[in-house]
Amino acid sequence: MEVPVTLKPSYSGCPVGCGEPVVNDSAVLKRGERFDIFIGGKAKGLKAELGQLFKSNLQAFEVYEVMEWVDWIL
Prior knowledge:
Elements: E1 9-12, E2 26-31, E3 34-39, E4 52-58, H1 60-73
Parallel strand pairs: 1-2
Antiparallel strand pairs: 2-3, 3-4
Keywords: Iron, Iron-sulfur, Metal-binding
């Protein structure tokens, strides 16, 4: 999908976020058999911040649907 700016999506299979995925534009964290999605993280600068929990406790098929929509709005 073409977007007007560079996006940094990320994924971690570690339930505590190894690799710091939540400082990216969008992040998917696997927690057991379920997934959480975070959006809005910023990795650098004076305004660095963690992404906010957007959706939680999703099944795998739901992640695809939500992330397609998230990448569109970011």
